[in-house]
Specification:
258 residues; alpha/beta; Rossmann fold; 2 domains; seven-stranded mixed beta sheet; globular; binds S-adenosylmethionine
């Protein structure tokens, strides 16, 4: 058996701490020496680390989020159009497709911060817009938004008092902060969607509509079944402004049977 030859000068040792990575091996890989492809990958990772390091000690996930935000056409457009969030375009698209907002409509905005959906409801001449978020929201002219946890057992009553009657549209963009633990995140999201649906059952006028963000391929079967009983039509939709990589989509239920 022949001994492994020392590597030629064309190959270089991988180095995480140093910036340059030029050498490569035409085929195969021996311990301590890397292929051109592996070298390229390491260089890319290092480049990313470099950019992350310059981001004032932010976590990689927040830095990637920030980079995505800065390059997102909807974020730029929202700034130009004076909307608080890129999410504003999601309700605009859903409204265009499903005809949800109309002059004089009474609208509830669940998970309202920073206020994009409420802005759109006001812009579409809703008669009354009330909202809730666990985070504070800068006042939106024409809307009344309360800072409160929607999971608080008093939240539904507080909102109903603010409404002072029934609603034409309950729209929920509620999204729990993710923990990174898949099952926990899934359960928290499902709980918010179910609570939003039950709130809609309490406050909608006959003929009213319910829009909610859902994740991972749509609503849970039991929820979907009860929505199909209580509404004339139930559809899933993914607006163009919802990021391709995001597991979110929306469920639009119209024609509440009361
Ligand atoms: C995607 S954002 C909503 C964006 C909003 N539609 C807009 O256009 O500006 C989701 C919101 O849900 C809120 N949220 C999550 N859990 C909540 C809870 N338990 N109670 C109230 N708000 C909650 C978050 O604080 C966050 O502001």
């Amino acid at each position: 058996m022949s001994k492994a030859k020392p590597p030629s000068k064309r190959f270089s040792k991988p180095s995480v701490s140093k910036g340059k990575m030029t050498g490569s091996k035409p085929s195969g890989e021996k311990r301590g020496w890397i292929t051109r492809e592996a070298a390229k990958k390491q260089a890319e990772t290092r480049m990313m680390d470099e950019r992350v390091k310059t981001a004032r000690g932010r976590k990689i996930s927040s830095t990637l989020w920030l980079r995505r935000q800065l390059n997102d056409p909807y974020v730029k457009k929202a700034k130009l159009d004076g909307y608080r969030s890129r999410a504003a375009y999601k309700i605009l698209e859903l409204d265009e497709k499903f005809d949800l907002l109309f002059k004089g409509a009474v609208v509830v905005d669940l998970g309202a911060a920073p206020g994009g959906w409420s802005q759109i409801a006001v812009k579409k001449n809703a008669g009354k817009v009330i909202g809730i978020d666990i985070l504070p929201v800068e006042p939106v002219a024409g809307a009344d938004i309360i800072e409160m946890d929607f999971l608080d057992e008093r939240a539904a009553d507080v909102l109903m008092n603010m409404l002072g009657g029934k609603a034409d549209l309950v729209m929920s963009d509620l999204a729990a902060n993710t923990t990174g633990h898949r099952n926990t995140d899934h359960l928290r999201t499902v709980a918010l969607v179910e609570l939003a649906a039950h709130f809609a059952f309490q406050v909608l006028k006959p003929g009213g509509a319910f829009v909610t963000k859902v994740f991972q391929g749509g609503a849970e079967k039991t929820l979907l079944d009860s929505l199909k009983i209580k509404f004339e039509t139930v559809r899933h939709a993914k607006p163009k402004s919802s990021r391709d990589g995001s597991p979110e989509m929306y469920l639009v239920a119209k024609g509440y049977k009361g």
